[in-house]
Specification:
The protein has 262 residues and is of the alpha+beta class. The protein is built from ten helices and four strands. The protein has a domain of 179 residues: 3-Layer(aba) Sandwich (NADH Oxidase). Helix 2 packs across helix 5. The longest helix has 24 residues. The chain is globular. Its EC number is 1.5.1.38. This is NADPH-flavin oxidoreductase.
């Protein structure tokens, strides 16, 4: 065992797992405060702070999100956040500053371009990851929810998201009511490269069989009666999937005022 593996931060990161079933206990307000402060300490591109998080406390709204995600446990989460790209606040600040005579560029169309959209997504994801790590370190369980984007238009309407905002991910937090095994990760030689991406696909494929076998022996608590299928099969299916989860982003982003062509 590496001498650094006993470090509490490293231990938390290496033992991270998704928790989908929570004890029906509220989270102490002081803990909520700590989690939100941890999220705010995440890195932010150019310090634009171009993300926000909607704390979902209304039971009806939780059920609506569970319906969108097709995951009942979302409605049972004691603490639930939706993280969003937020250039709306920056536009409001710029307009306010312009009124005060400090800038002449309040309405120049730069907050809605693809670079800002991507950086806002990055910032929101980093903030969510910081919150999740903090929650795990405190003994809480979390699950990151991309499923709330199954119907992004409906989510935008439910949360009354204004122009220049866009939902990124949700995070459910609570006291764990399950203890799943750690899900295997692919061999690092398939994912970490020196100085450049491998020029020969054989280099990244040589360990696929090994990972297929490893993952096939993992049992997900959601399907405890059967092992998870080989990784290759999952990727092959996803590569041709044209089902309901494959939805275009650009039209919805355009509805929110972003121009992803720029």
């Amino acid at each position: 065992m590496n001498e650094h593996s006993t470090n509490t931060v490293i231990h938390t990161l290496l033992n991270r797992r998704s928790i989908r079933h929570f004890a029906p206990e509220p989270i102490d307000p002081d803990i909520v405060d700590l989690l939100e402060r941890a999220a705010q300490q995440a890195a932010s591109s150019q310090f634009l702070n171009d993300w926000s998080a909607i704390r979902i406390t209304d039971d009806g709204l939780k059920r609506a999100l569970a319906d969108i995600g097709n995951q009942d446990y979302i409605a049972q989460a004691p603490l639930l956040y939706v993280f969003v790209v937020d250039e709306h606040r920056n536009l409001a600040i710029a307009r306010h500053a312009a009124d005060g005579g400090t800038t002449a560029a309040a309405d120049s169309p730069t907050l809605n371009v693809s670079y800002r959209y991507i950086q806002g997504q990055n910032d929101a994801t980093l903030a969510l990851q910081s919150m999740e790590t903090a929650a795990n370190a405190l003994g809480l369980g979390c699950v990151i929810l991309g499923s709330v984007l199954n119907d992004a238009n409906r989510l935008i309407d439910l949360l009354h998201l204004p122009e220049l905002t866009y939902p990124v991910l949700a995070l459910a937090i609570g006291k764990p009511a399950e203890s799943p095994a750690l899900k295997p990760r692919m061999p690092r030689r398939m994912q970490f490269f020196d100085n450049a991406y491998p020029g020969d696909d054989a280099t990244i494929l040589e360990s696929v069989g090994e990972f297929d076998a490893t993952l096939h022996h993992y049992y997900d608590l959601r399907h405890a009666d059967r092992p998870v299928g080989p990784f290759s099969d999952q990727i092959a299916k996803a590569s041709t999937d044209e089902g309901p989860l494959i939805r275009p982003v650009a039209p919805i982003a355009a509805r929110q005022g972003f121009d992803l062509s720029r």
